[in-house]
Amino acid sequence: MPNIFFLMLRRLRTPIITLILIYAVSVFGLVLIPGMDDAGQPYRMDFFHAIYFISYTATTIGFGEIPYAFTSAQRMWVLVCIYLAVIGWAYALSSIFALTRDQALTKAIQYTRFTSKVKRMNEPFYLICGYGQTGRILCQVLDTQDIRFVVIDLREERINDVALADYHFDAPFYAGDAANPELLKIAGLSHPRCIGVLGITGNENTNLSIAITAFVLRPKLLSICRSKNQEISDNMASFGTNKVINMFEAVGQQFQLAMHAPAVSHLRKILSDFPGNPFPPSIKPPKGHWVIVGYGRFGRSIHKALSQEGISVHIIDPDPQPELDPQIYHQALGVDAASLKTAGIEHAVGLFVCHDDDANNLSSLATARAINPALFIVARQNLATNHLLFNAFAPNFISIRSEVVAHEALRAMANPLLAQFVLALVTKEDEWASQLTIDIDNLCQGIVPEHWTVRLNAKNPAAVQAFLARPLPSLQIKHFYHSVIDHGRPLQCIALLRRHGEKDILLPKADDMLRYGDELLFIGDHHAQQSHQAMCSEVSLMEYARTGVEQPQSWIFRKIAAWRERS
Asked: Architecture of 116-241 per CATH?
């Protein structure tokens, strides 16, 4: 860590030496020039009075002549000293102002402040590497949930956006290369309160370096990294990355699930969305002939998903694609009517616009809709700032890269049990998912619910008391469905998953007997979450939920209650 004080002294060395020389010469001049006292006798000023006089004369142009009135020679020398001091101070002040614009010093000050803030972090926090569109979304969600975070990004202008963002707490931020292991360590990767690191920069090699550094320094730390191709994804997974997000593969898988099981897909989107948001719309893509405009990584992923469902596809792309069958490929940009008609847009049921340029996507969308107004349109939106344009065209579904990655990352960050439940959804039938969606809708009135985990282990003293001290009646899931804060009022919550060891039970029954070591995943409103937190923090509240009898609070009344029970 650079020493800012000595760094500033080094930069101001010349003006400081100049001022010291001016003061020294001025003092020696006053000491050497003879003066005259009140009796007309000659005298020489001592060093103390000379230093005192020059100190206030060089800064405030003086308070008077001491200890006696000066002679003409002394006054001439003082006049020279005044102008020397003015010149010296002007030089020093200009050097100080120039120092404030010194980029190296500014960077050093930012670095020192950043490391100091990170060291003082006393709450759990995430290290977010990359503050693009995805990083902004994640920071906003974490901030609303009162979860701390540290941000690093290579680009200075993005880091300035963190400083201007209206977050509830002062988030530490620094502009630097996240591929540097030393910077990651300084940024909190080795901090005991760091609970996860996210590599979501736009550079895949940087994200890979983050995964490697996290594996070496903190092997058990939650790490989430973004990737764009399968080779990098496999490399990240080999270093123990908990969640590798391939945006293009994720979109393809989601769309394939929407075609195969729309109700399961809708439920998955609800549970993956941000708590407090309205339910995302349900999409049911029609089966028939589809046209894909743009055959980059996004288009390839969609083509793979449609092919696995046995859907007829025609592809339009401006670059040659020798691996494609010429019968299903047409080389063009796909924004004109001729190329779209060649692809069969007139009898198609759906259109994908997958270019990495929003202008081309909007142009293709408008032309296709003019030819076939009944098209089911899925549009790729690259920049979040273009949402007004895409909303004006009103496609059936808009795929925004930053939101896809943010949802995938948040699901892995927020709750491991929720991620496991969402993963298990693909094995369920549409009827099962439809009923659960209706139950969640009735529970939360169309608002994405909050989710939390209750762990019945040694860190939960109330659970230990419930299992060991008084084994009857047994603790059941239904005991978590009534409030311990509001006199047993029913809570708006659902137990989605129960885990014991390696066994997961989806939608456990209310009368299921719980065992020591169980973990329960709940969704519901904030009041239910607060009630469960209170139950797990107070033995008496857990006992009240289990027995329905209010427990005495003080030690002596608990002893009396125990004596009465034995009697």
From this structure: 3-Layer(aba) Sandwich (3.40)
